[in-house]
Fold:
Amino acid sequence: MAIRIEGLTKRFGATPVLKGVDLDVADGELVALLGPSGSGKTTLLRILAGLEWPDYGVLEVDGEDWLKLEARKRRIGFVFQHYALFPHMRVRDNIAFGLTVRPRRERPSSAEIARRVDDLLGFLQIAHLADRFPSELSGGQRQRVALGRAMAIDPRVLLLDEPFGALDAAIRRDLRRWLRGVHDATGTTTLFVTHDQEEAFELADRVVVMGHGQIEQVGGADAIYDHPATPFVARFLGGVNEIPVSMHAGRAGAPGVDASEIERIACRDGAATLVARPADIGLAPDATSPWRVESAAHTGPSLALRLTDGAGGAIDVELPRREARGLDLSPGAAVRVIVHAARVFPDTDRPAAPAATPVLKPLKEAHT
Ligand SMILES: Nc1ncnc2c1ncn2[C@@H]1O[C@H](COP(=O)(O)OP(=O)(O)O)[C@@H](O)[C@H]1O
Ligand SMILES: [Mg+2]
Structure:
């Protein structure tokens, strides 16, 4: 099923929770919604499931208007972080539940239900758990059963809201691979919500980064890591420096900061923020620079340094050992910050999209 979401807007009281979300999900795709707590991920899933209604916007699935379709007619499979399996029912009955509660004329025969449940138990590699009660299962096993229960109704769309959020890292990793295998075998269109970037990038075909009720960026790991579209995305992925600079004729500069290796960018003159990873920064001795080494620690192949400028600014640098050789990096040493790779965003709330695309190509090339 292909999902089309356009301009989806939702407020709770005066609080905007979704601010015009546009998203297309292709039939059979597994998309991860990645974002911090409170960014609106669950609200978006609940709207898809028909548990919540938007104030404005479009929600179509295979061309059908789902905002006119009540929840139970959408045939959604939903797995929550804390999925309450029925404690008094064995695994097999939990999985069968969605089929047994169907109206009589849509309900398969009990033999057919039993056969489907057996198939699913085998397919999900949980046949050995069939006769257990939920209290006899580990957290990971419970979530496998919860997925089985969601899949028993042959859902048109699967919605998974941080399904592994309460589990240990090692179990999460296993479940992630298992879920990817299940998805590859069934091809059910799936939206997977997580705030864990590793999980999102390993699992999904495409990652949708959400922040403050809007989509900040959509793409694969390479696009999102190497070309974060907004400072929000860069910050959310973490491990970046934000260095205040001023822009002049497409070039970023600041005292003690040399960004001349960075391609000129289309950014108006004035204050901007340069976002650079610690490993994309080099150092040179420079007595005129305000940046001083505050600390340096060996981390195996590289040196982890923290620089400060005496005015509240700090920069983390990860310098390969061979580049550190011969440099005075003792505490207090003055150094110039050489930026090898970075993104620059003008200091406005939402930077213009072309802010970080290289410009000043020859005009002819730019217009063909
Ligand atoms: N039923 C509700 N009533 C009022 N505010 C809500 C309700 N549900 C969610 N919110 C608020 O909407 C925002 C987004 O919540 P949510 O969609 O749960 O985000 P996420 O799943 O990304 O953590 C939060 O600020 C939350 O407090
Ligand atoms: Mg949530």
